[in-house]
Design goal:
This protein is an alpha/beta fold and 334 residues long. It is 36% helix and 18% strand. It has ten helices and ten strands.
């Protein structure tokens, strides 16, 4: 069952606007010359509000890429409609590498949630590379009887869907992780949606929702303060930030594996030399000790292979994983 606490989806007028014709710039325009790339500042669209983990990761990597590319990389937050407004901006942009997208898990479920959205995750976007990933934490209000994963599952089964589960929106990584828990563990709960993480966390702290699955960066300080109780992480392996928490798979939810992640994209049709320059700059940025230190501070972990080919394969695998889960909730066609 899904209960909406807030209006989730902005009108898709912008997202559904006709695509701008590509390749209309004159060949004399230096911005069209891959050898001169980049010839001006690069817009990097983050399709979510500032302060979330996608935005944080974007700011860390673009700051490091900027001196490598020799031009400013300017973050532009375009939140709304599950990330499709910002994604549409990039899909419609000239494929010259001067407008890029950094997106996360929600990018892989647009075909289900937004069947009228005219852009495909892989057809209309060229993956430049993977950025980072972060386990979610399964957390409950301290007043609940759940003290570990087995007692959580027993409590959920006994309540038969009466437990309230807070999330930042249908199709968000936190929501998908909850639906995966339902599917893998055979439990039920009521999904309560919010416009943003702060509002959801406020209600968790107040006991108006009983549980959440969300960012370890956000929840770890609340766990240390005793304001919420962390039970497990959602990733395949334990978290370096919270090594004492078991994974859900360790705790008995067989086959469970879910993480928040981010990737960099350019519009489809971007010249190969431009994509190669971007991919090289991203790889070099991710290898910098300062970037690795900042990732560790916010709980981001590196991918073993962040190349464009690995990114494309990973996005396809995520689509194959999450689309059936989301369809099973009846949430498609929003």
């Amino acid at each position: 069952m899904i209960r909406r606490r807030a209006v989730l989806h902005a009108p898709l007028a912008l997202a559904a606007a006709p695509a701008v014709a590509q390749g209309t710039n004159s060949g004399n325009n230096p911005g069209n010359n891959p050898g001169n790339y980049p010839s001006r500042p690069v817009r990097v669209i983050v399709p979510f509000a500032a302060g979330g983990i996608v935005d944080v990761a974007a700011r860390i990597v673009t700051e490091a890429m900027q001196p490598l590319l020799g031009r400013p990389l300017v973050i532009e937050n375009q939140p709304g409609a599950g990330g499709t407004i910002g994604a549409a901006t990039v899909a419609r942009a000239a494929p010259d590498g001067h407008t890029l997208l950094i997106n996360g898990t929600g990018h892989t479920v647009t075909r289900v949630l937004y069947p009228s959205f005219p852009h495909e995750p892989l057809r209309d976007f060229a993956p430049v590379g993977l950025i980072g990933r972060q386990p979610f934490v399964v957390a409950v209000h301290p007043a609940t009887p759940a003290t570990d994963v087995p007692t959580l599952l027993a409590w959920l089964r006994a309540r038969g869907g009466e437990v309230n589960f807070g999330t930042t929106g249908i199709g968000a990584g936190s929501h998908l992780s909850g639906e995966l828990l339902k599917a893998r563990a055979g439990v039920a709960f009521t999904v309560v949606t919010y416009r943003g993480t702060p509002a959801a966390v406020t209600d968790l702290l107040a006991g108006r929702v009983d549980m959440m699955i969300d960012s370890q960066t956000l929840l770890a300080p609340l766990m240390r303060a005793g304001q919420v109780r962390g039970l497990a992480v959602t990733s395949k392996d334990r978290s370096a930030m919270l090594p004492d928490l078991p994974t859900l798979a360790e705790a008995g939810v067989e086959g469970y594996d879910a993480s928040s992640w981010q990737a960099l994209y350019a519009p489809a049709g971007t010249p190969a030399p431009v994509l190669a320059r971007l991919s090289d700059a991203l790889a070099r940025a991710l290898a910098e000790p300062g970037v690795r230190a900042r990732f560790a501070e916010v709980g981001l972990e590196e991918f073993p292979d962040a190349s464009p080919a690995a990114a494309a394969a990973f996005v396809r695998a995520e689509m194959d994983k999450w689309e059936p889960i989301l369809r099973a909730t009846g949430a498609q066609g929003q």
